[in-house]
Write a structure and sequence with these properties.
The structure is a single chain. The protein is of the alpha/beta class. Helices cover 40% and strands 16% of the residues. It has 27 helices and 22 strands. Strands 2-3-1-4-5-6 form a six-stranded parallel beta sheet, with helices on both faces. Strand 12, helix 15 and strand 13 form a beta-alpha-beta unit. Helix 4 crosses helix 5 and helix 18 packs across helix 19. The longest helix is centred in the C-terminal third of the chain and has 17 residues. The radius of gyration is 29 Å and the shape is globular. It starts with a strand and ends with a helix. 48% of the residues are buried.
């Protein structure tokens, strides 16, 4: 542990934990080897429950930090006058958390009305750790002048003599309403009560003249508060009336409907929880009808303990089969609405999606240069998943490429395309019916950005017939057959790529790998310097990103082909910021084994080394010898690859595909790919179970390939 950043609040309600963990993410994305520590727990659960901060930190770092000291224990030490002993305990804990990291982010304590000693204890801990200070402030009900003064006073508390330890201040919850719970509620006429306030607090007097550095402002985002239907149901003690309910749906808005149907239609939007008396069958029917018309409501909350008639529920069954949650509570509508307004909107420990959204939203708004200036930068020994994904987005955005998405009417693909366009990752081109795509976007409350192109396939096919015949006519392809082939959007998209009308192609969300790759092999062709087309996966292990190849394309490559795969994979790793140390995997290490299979790997290693002496390549190596330093020291002493391999080349598809899936599923590891390599132009496949985020990063991968 080389440096400590202590994150301290300036007052009440600053959202300290979310900012603290956002800072951890931002540092991790910079490739810094960062750890996290919460010295003293303050969560409201039982003493045996894990502090939520630790769970959230574990989500970022892939490991759960050390358990903090209990607040009761800290108070007892302070009451006994044993401050130094308490601080020794804190330092010991932080040192354990800081083992093996270069930077440790420490979360301070949150002020509490019944604990006036909190701020003093924060200062004592910061001093004991000799840490730099990052302040976190929120305006809440303060005026600009009061907020500026609060920041200045707190900064002075942490200053010691001429030693300027305060790095600066991050402003949180900028533009938040005084009652954030109102963000979920709508008024009686259906209009949303929350109007997001656009403030700019960077010009506060405290930031003028360098008194305290401005480190960014995190704007209030209502979606950060969005609970799942399951959270609402649990906290209101509801019971579900639909066995097929998707209780993971997000509640972005709540509407209380006790008026005539025609006066509440405008409130039926995607993500809305409809609250209505259980005996209002008309509202229940209209809500189910909206669902059948493509509006994905969050759910329906029936009040008063009235259970709808069984025949009515049977009439609504088709809507229920979509996963629509219908939950029932015993309290009347007025009391239920009161409970909803008092709902605890803290992120539950098991809500990984919302945790990720909040942390990402914070990390993207922190100004890192002043913080990085305080760090003693060291060469990163690993590229973390967060850093890898961050680099993908950053590099893709440097030179925007047109990426065609043949599965243009697929809901995940539409969402990913919108994200890529909004974030400046690429210029997506969707192939599909314009009206269908527009309707799907509207049902998700999304807007198609101007930089996103939608092409109607039937309007485009004719102009690609002649070029397709030119490429495949020698195979006996007729005009009629060409027209039929071009009705496949993947073929159409591949022709667009072949003619340089787009820069890359991503498909596979609803197509097989063969459906995606075959047109590319026929129309794009391998590069002249490549014997074959192969694939790699980027395996996002908790500590670093590894490259696995080939796990998707070549069933049983010979020695020359395996050498080509190794070289392609090494070059791909380097292109994406991973220093290639290539391990040729086999069931035997070095000369300890013999046989056709291991001989093939040995020959492939020799060929690859001869062709590319600039690459670190070793083999044959067993997986443990390639990945574990202790094993490598025994089985392959002196190897520059063994024990620290970053690229793993498997001898055949059976081994590679089995290994990647075993690691992915057993270790709950995110894998990005397969990324095809060796083609003249980038074409990449998706898993049919791909998440929206997976598609976004695959588009980014493809865009970066197109830049080279």
């Amino acid at each position: 542990m080389k440096q400590v950043f202590f994150v301290a609040p300036t007052g009440f309600g600053t959202g300290l934990t979310s900012v603290c963990l956002g800072l951890v993410r931002a540092m991790d994305q910079q490739g810094l080897n960062v750890g996290f520590c919460k010295p003293i727990a303050q969560h409201s659960g039982t003493t045996t429950e894990l502090d939520p901060s630790l769970l959230f930190a574990g989500h970022i770092l892939g490991r759960i930090p050390e358990q903090p000291l209990n607040l009761d224990y800290a108070q007892s030490r302070l009451a006994a006058g044993e401050v130094e002993q308490l601080l020794e305990d804190v330092v010991s804990l932080c040192q354990r958390c800081g083992e093996g990291v270069d930077i440790l982010v420490v979360e301070g304590l949150v002020p509490q009305a019944n604990s006036p000693f909190i701020q003093r204890l924060n200062i004592q801990i910061a001093n004991a750790l000799d840490s730099d200070i990052v302040l976190v402030a929120a305006k809440n009900q303060l005026s600009d002048a009061e907020l500026s003064q609060q920041i200045g006073v707190t900064a002075n508390f942490y200053r010691t003599g001429d030693d300027e330890r305060v790095v600066g201040c991050i402003l949180n919850k900028v533009g938040a309403p005084q009652d954030p719970l109102s963000a979920l509620m709508t008024s009686d006429d259906g209009t949303q009560t929350l109007a997001q306030i656009k403030e700019d607090l960077s010009g506060l007097p405290i930031f003028a003249g360098g008194k305290v550095a401005f480190l960014g402002q995190v704007y209030f985002e209502p979606s950060f508060l969005a609970p799942r239907v399951a959270d609402v149901s649990r906290r209101l003690n509801c019971r579900s009336l639909n066995d097929k309910a998707d209780l993971s749906r997000r509640v972005n808005e709540v509407t209380v409907c006790a008026r005539r149907v025609n006066n509440m239609l405008d409130t039926l939007k995607a993500g809305t929880l409809v609250v209505t008396p259980g005996d209002r069958e008309d509202i229940l029917l209209v809500a189910c009808l909206a669902v059948l018309n493509g509006v994905q409501l969050a759910g329906i909350l029936l009040t008063g303990g009235y259970t709808p008639d069984k025949k009515l529920m049977q009439l609504c069954q088709v809507a229920l089969d979509t996963g629509l949650p219908i939950i029932l509570c015993d309290s009347d509508t007025y009391r239920t609405a009161q409970k909803l307004e008092r709902l605890n909107l803290d992120v539950p420990a098991d809500d990984a999606q919302r945790i990720e959204q909040v942390i990402r939203g914070v990390s993207e708004n922190i100004l890192m240069p002043p913080i990085l200036a305080r760090t003693q930068r060291v060469k990163a020994t690993r590229l973390s998943p967060a850093a890898f994904r961050h680099q993908l987005v950053q590099r893709a955005g440097r030179d925007l490429k047109r990426i065609v998405l043949p599965e243009g009417e697929e809901i995940r693909t539409i969402q990913a395309a919108i994200i890529c366009a909004q974030k400046g990752i690429a210029k997506p081109v969707l192939l599909g019916n314009r009206d269908n795509i527009q309707r799907i976007a509207e049902s998700l409350s999304l807007v198609l950005p101007a930089s996103l192109t939608v092409l109607q396939p039937e309007e485009e096919i004719e102009k690609y017939v002649a070029p397709l015949l030119e490429r495949r006519g020698h195979k006996g392809l007729t005009r009629e057959a060409a027209l039929e082939l071009l009705e496949d959007n993947v073929v159409l998209g591949t022709m667009m790529l072949a003619l340089d009308e787009v820069d890359g192609l991503v498909s596979g969300a609803i197509h097989t790998t063969a459906n995606t790759i075959r047109p590319a092999l026929q129309l794009i062709k391998p590069r002249p310097d490549c014997r074959l087309v192969s694939s790699i996966f980027f395996m996002c292990l908790p500590e670093q990103v590894l490259v696995y190849g080939d796990c998707a394309v070549n069933p049983d490559p010979n020695a020359e082909e395996l050498a080509d795969i190794a070289i392609q994979s090494g070059d791909s790793a380097r292109a994406f910021g991973i220093e290639p140390r290539i391990a040729m995997i086999s069931y035997s290490t070095g000369t300890s084994g013999a046989g056709v299979d291991v001989d093939k790997v040995r020959e492939a290693t020799r060929l690859a080394k001869a062709r590319r002496p600039d690459l670190l390549i070793d083999g044959p190596l067993q997986y443990d010898a390639a990945s574990v330093a202790a094993v490598a020291s025994q089985k392959a002493p002196g190897s520059m690859v063994a024990g620290k391999a970053t690229v793993y080349i498997f001898p055949d598809l059976n081994t590679g595909n089995t290994t990647y899936k075993a690691v992915q599923r057993s270790a709950n590891v995110v894998s990005i790919g397969p990324m095809l390599q060796g083609l003249n132009k980038p074409v990449n496949d998706l898993s049919r179970g791909a998440l929206v985020e997976d598609i976004v990063y695959t588009i980014a991968l493809t865009a970066i390939q197109a830049q080279h």
